[in-house]
Known about the structure:
alpha+beta; 3-stranded antiparallel β-sheet; transposase activity
Amino acid sequence: MSSPLTTSRPSDLYTRMSPGEIAKAIPQGCDWGGKRNSQGNVKWWRGFKIHIHSAEGEIPLAVLVTSASVHDSQPVPYLVKRTKERCPNVLYTLTDAAYDAQSITRLIEGYGGVHVTDSNPRGGEEILLDPAKKERYKKRSGAERVFSRLKEDFGVTFLRVRVPRKVTAHMMFSVLALTADQLLRLVV
């Protein structure tokens, strides 16, 4: 039996935990991670990942820094719960195919949200979005712009530290700068 920390999908344990407990339970040390790109090649790196739940306007609402080996879906309970604490009126959560799991959809709907996700065709079965969700899903590119701006404009690509608390501090200062910049763009 695998531990909840090594499963590739969020476990029931994470959904029952508080955000603080989840943040402590998810690995946050420097290690190896890999991701398959659009050409099917795996890119490997040593370090950390930053997970962000952002609003329209590319404003981060909840952020968690984890080990590079943590699957993207594991921090979802933390991000959803933190977002609902801070912004209870958030309705839509737009995600890519890595988050196409019933447990994630149940969690988001349990907090009164709507989960709009790209289908992950397991066993050849692909589920198409209804027209309203398909139109809403087009706004997901804003989340990708958040990561792009953090990497290109705010220095999270090349960290000079490896201690988890220093990495987290560096990334959070970058997120704070991005948030301030985005808020100024909305005002001006």
